[in-house]
Task: inverse folding
């Protein structure tokens, strides 16, 4: 059996976990106020905020921001702000309103990952990856000495054998704190190398039909694209162990009781909202409540694709922008805005995810969200991806 899991040496901050950990960069992309609140919360403290590029700021002095990100990565290493653990995994427990979501932080081999329609890959993207969205993410990775990923990868384990085995062990607690701005509570335990080896073997038995990138599809695709750049100048021996060949992810059992697959709603903004609603209602059967549109179609990849095609068609002819929102609060706020309309999507079933992948297909981009916006992974653990 092929093995796509590696046991990394994970980097953690020495202290100040609450201000260090910030939410994934692709959240609150239409809410600058959220990221301004994050900046105020962090203040001048060491934080992963200084080593990511929130997408809300994309297109605004990207080169300068990325150069500063790289400088900050060198600084946290040189000043000992982060330290490297022994080789091993991290068992995470995220306490959320819906329960405790557990995961295993490990590294994956990007040679075994594909975001194309490949039935042979051990790790597959769940949704369509848009190549045009990769360059800023690759630019952050190019020249970086560290990665702080937010990717989550699903595996199938209905009896929860993998995690039950770890929960029976006495593990060293690494951190235990409240995440900022309503992110819940996060606890992490160190899984030493010998136990990580057996855990990796157990995980590999759950790759049925593959592992599924549940969150962070574009981040892993960017890591893959960067690795393809790097490996061209390496010998076969160097390729086998170069740190850029691997990336950190959190493995999560899709059948975890605290895993909820939320729909991602389609926001149409900077256009005549009433005109859009009138047009969309003629194109796709739906119930209209003000500027909220509820398609009268079954949930699934086909419906999402149909909605996306319709939205794109309207915007090409009439102008405006499309975006994505997750939470009920964002939904209600958008409905009050004068130039916004929202297509309200239905949730995807857990069994649907691997059924689609088994057929060699993908969901359209932004088809579902693992939890709502504040339940996304926060950047905390890192890993060196360069020899510099």
Result:
């Amino acid at each position: 059996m092929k093995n796509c899991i590696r046991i990394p040496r994970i980097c953690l901050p020495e202290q100040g976990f609450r201000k260090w950990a910030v939410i994934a960069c692709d959240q609150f992309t239409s809410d600058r106020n959220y990221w301004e609140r994050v900046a105020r919360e962090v203040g001048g403290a060491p934080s992963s905020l200084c080593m990511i590029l929130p997408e809300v700021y994309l297109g605004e002095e990207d080169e300068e921001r990325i150069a500063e990100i790289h400088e900050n990565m060198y600084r946290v290493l040189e000043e000992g702000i982060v330290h490297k653990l022994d080789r091993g995994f991290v068992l995470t427990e995220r306490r959320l309103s819906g329960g405790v979501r557990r995961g295993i932080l490990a590294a994956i081999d990007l040679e075994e990952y594909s975001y194309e329609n490949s039935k042979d890959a051990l790790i597959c993207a769940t949704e369509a990856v848009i190549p045009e969205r990769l360059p800023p993410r690759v630019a952050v990775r190019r020249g970086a000495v560290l990665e702080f990923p937010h990717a989550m990868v699903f595996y199938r384990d209905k009896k929860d054998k993998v995690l039950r085995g770890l929960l029976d062990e006495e593990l060293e607690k690494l951190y235990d704190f409240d995440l900022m701005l309503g992110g819940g509570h996060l606890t992490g335990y160190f899984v030493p190398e010998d136990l990580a080896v057996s855990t990796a073997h157990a995980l590999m038995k759950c790759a049925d039909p593959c592992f599924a990138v549940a969150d962070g599809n574009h981040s892993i695709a960017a890591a893959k694209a960067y690795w393809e750049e790097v490996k061209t100048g390496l010998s076969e021996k160097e390729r086998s162990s170069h740190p850029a060949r691997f990336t950190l992810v959190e493995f999560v059992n899709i059948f975890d009781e605290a895993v909820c697959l939320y729909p991602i709603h389609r926001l149409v903004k900077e256009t005549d909202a009433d005109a859009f609603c009138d047009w969309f209602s003629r194109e796709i059967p739906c119930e209209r409540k003000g500027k909220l549109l509820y398609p009268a179609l079954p949930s699934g990849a086909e419906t999402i694709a149909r909605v996306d095609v319709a939205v794109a068609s309207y915007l090409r002819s009439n102008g405006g922008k499309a975006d994505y929102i997750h939470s009920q609060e964002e939904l209600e706020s958008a409905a009050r805005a004068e130039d916004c309309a929202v297509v309200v999507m239905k949730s995807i079933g857990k069994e649907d995810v691997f059924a689609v992948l088994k057929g060699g297909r993908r969901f359209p981009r932004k088809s579902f969200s693992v939890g709502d916006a504040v339940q996304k992974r926060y950047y905390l653990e890192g890993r060196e991806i360069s020899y510099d």
Remarks:
- Residues 301-318 form the longest helix (18 residues).
- The first strand starts at residue 5 and ends at 6.
